Amino acid sequence: MAWKDEDEGKGVLMQLFPFGGRMDEISESELPFPHRSGNLCLVLYLVFWQEEGHEAAERNINWLRRLYSYMEPFVSKSPRAAYVNYRDLDIGVNNNDGYTSYKQASVWGEKYFKNNFNRLAHVKTKVDPLNFFRFETKTTPKPLVIVTPSEISQVQATIICSKRHGMQIRARSGGHDYEGLSYVSEVQFVIIDLINLSKIDVDADSRTAWVQAGATIGQLYYRISQKSKTLGFPAAVCATVGVGGQFSGGGYGFLMRKYGLAADNIIDAHIIDVNGRFLDREAMGEDLFWAIRGGGGASFGVIISWKIKLVPVPSTVTVFRVARTLEQNATKLVHKWHLVANKLDKNLTIRIDLQRVNSSTKQGGLTVQATFESMFLGTVDQLIPLVQKSFPELGLVKQDCTEVSWIQSVLYLGGFSITQSPDVLLNRTQSSVASFKGKSDYVTVPIPESGLEGLWPLFYEEEAQNAIMIFNPYGGRMDEIPESEIPFPHRAGNICKIQHIVYWLEEGDEVAQRHINWIRRLYSYMEPFVSKSPRAAYVNYRDLDIGVNNKNGYTSYKEASIWGVKYFKNNFNRLVHVKTKVDPLNFFRNEQSIPSLLPVGRK
Ligand SMILES: Cc1cc2nc3c(=O)[nH]c(=O)nc-3n(C[C@H](O)[C@H](O)[C@H](O)COP(=O)(O)OP(=O)(O)OC[C@H]3O[C@@H](n4cnc5c(N)ncnc54)[C@H](O)[C@@H]3O)c2cc1C
């Protein structure tokens, strides 16, 4: 049919672009673009038409589809490959409801990216993992209503109305809760989604900003950078995390060793309490203001906005990422890092990501890779001598480092390219391909090499294909802030926090259970090497395994202490007293909310 003189075919182009040469030499997995050796050419099919109207469009598109169909026997198969820059929605699209499974997306994804689609999905999950489908199944309990207030009075009305009708509230800002507590509940519930309350006012002169709870941290960083190149804020690494949940649980990132947590830098807040009242710091009083800076907002009301203190950053900072496998001495390096990471200059943060990778030396084998990822508040020439003095074994050289602005460091550490426009930080699109389960630990004594060696075999198990352990160094400013200053208690004496995390792409309970069991085994293996009495945890890495409230609405102080003391240590006691004062009937509650001492709800 291709040579027949069909009307629709008048404005037609078939372009054959030869491959081979350098394209044959680059491996398929070097970049996501997979079409390398073995291809004679790339064929582009185009049809143009000048007539207006749906009917003409339809006729011409159908003609092109017939041409595409005719070509099938003569072109690549399984998959019938395509070039992503010649976008073609005919080869498959995502679902409209915001969630597309890995399997569904593979229909078009493997055509564009072949085997690289899998890695793209994993990178996507790491840098923008919202709507984890562990909580997106048909059986996941759904809210009666989702309210998206654009006025504060609508939050007040929703609280009063929910109370009157015996419904619980789940406040959701960025939706990143590890156990889905901002949007899943076993009881009748209403979601207040603060997405429309996301205004950010930065005042560079007074070095402060008001940020509404529904804003993401990426949006806040972006707005700060628009006003000043020498101001920043010490909060999360991942741009899509909401400030509502994050700041109320602590909030850390690469500025933590210099300036502490996001919650350490909050100077005022607006909250709607259980009676629907709008309160600022003065009206809420110092107890409640203390509690919502680290004690989790969901137990106390709905936070509308935070006033934060911005922090100075130099116009040039330096970033690097250096990866070492076990064959490149990773065990010794990770151990040595434990001896120095929390004692380094405050301006320097080096974190470690541990993951399994394919080994280039062992045939078909696997190894564990430690990636040392860093941000230094200064130039490369200031950085190199610091690392050479404290951590020479890392072998850091100037060529490993890049000097950037602070906002570019946010891009780099958040998984973007430093050449991208900071506008990408405004994107809060929720797109998910993976489920995950996370846990956390604190380390107070360096993990010995033998402890690390015992860990590696766990990474070779099937479920660990997409597992990661992230070691965040403490020390610096964190050592100076007293444990009781805000509810977040993990201060002096900690070498680092570890985040344990496992992802999986497949659907179904059996797969989920296997991966969850794997991470529970990892957690159990780590017990001798981490903090004890309590085995401390970070509330923003919510983990319902460490204990939950009773379903009947009443949980005693002693019962709740099982999980409460792990997150808050001695501050748990004060949190319970604040809760009893501001919400005695325990209206704001969830699986790990601070209990009231009043025995309401007891059956
Ligand atoms: C990919 C990823 C990366 C992360 N990176 C970091 C990081 O670098 N640093 C860090 O510290 N943490 C990080 N976290 C953890 C994150 O801080 C917590 O998950 C945090 O609770 C998320 O806040 P949110 O508003 O996005 O979540 P949500 O799910 O909306 O809320 C979390 C909790 O806070 C409550 N809440 C939310 N908004 C309000 C409000 N306005 N008023 C009262 N209660 C509210 C919710 O009800 C829920 O209990 C990360 C999480 C993910 C998934």
UniProtKB/TrEMBL annotation:
Residues 139-313 form the FAD-binding PCMH-type domain. The keyword Flavoprotein applies. Its cofactor is FAD. Keywords: FAD, Flavoprotein, Glycoprotein, Signal. The keyword Zinc-finger does not apply. Pfam families: BBE, FAD_binding_4. It comes from the Eukaryota. PROSITE patterns: FAD_PCMH. Belongs to the oxygen-dependent FAD-linked oxidoreductase family. This is FAD-binding PCMH-type domain-containing protein. It comes from Stylosanthes scabra.
